[in-house]
């Protein structure tokens, strides 16, 4: 039986999560992409704690965006999550693309986070 798109993404994410784990020294930058929004969290998997988060639903960011499902909106989220992480003293992260292909909105979020100062 052929799997649908969401099930294939979940399978890829489980496969990625076997290898990618965030620690206190190098937390995980997790990305979740829905049809209309994109969410990014910096997570310490040892403590099971979200350190910082940003998304297109964020009220501060929502006012400046024309549309939420674009590469420009994803870049704004990447920039915001990187700024918040740097304020917390986090410079290095492990990137978790969440089972999505490294292309389009996921790639623009990652590139913006790198440009803002995060290392991965």
Automatic annotation (TrEMBL):
Keyword Hydrolase tagged: no
Keywords in alphabetical order: Ribonucleoprotein, Ribosomal protein, RNA-binding, rRNA-binding
Ribosomal protein is among the record's keywords: yes
InterPro entries recorded: Ribosomal_L18, Ribosomal_uL18_bac-type, Ribosomal_uL18_bac/plant/anim
GO BP term, example: translation
Name of one Pfam family that matches: Ribosomal_L18p
UniProt-recorded Gene Ontology molecular function terms: 5S rRNA binding; structural constituent of ribosome
Annotated Gene Ontology cellular component terms: cytosolic large ribosomal subunit
Membership in a protein family: Belongs to the universal ribosomal protein uL18 family.
HAMAP family per record: Ribosomal_uL18_B
PANTHER family in alphabetical order: 39S RIBOSOMAL PROTEIN L18, MITOCHONDRIAL, LARGE RIBOSOMAL SUBUNIT PROTEIN UL18M
Summary of the function given for this chain in its UniProt record: This is one of the proteins that bind and probably mediate the attachment of the 5S RNA into the large ribosomal subunit, where it forms part of the central protuberance.
Assembly notes: Part of the 50S ribosomal subunit; part of the 5S rRNA/L5/L18/L25 subcomplex. Contacts the 5S and 23S rRNAs.
Official protein name in the record: Large ribosomal subunit protein uL18
Species name: Dactylococcopsis salina (strain PCC 8305) (Myxobactron salinum)
Organism taxonomic ancestry: Bacteria, Bacillati, Cyanobacteriota, Cyanophyceae, Nodosilineales
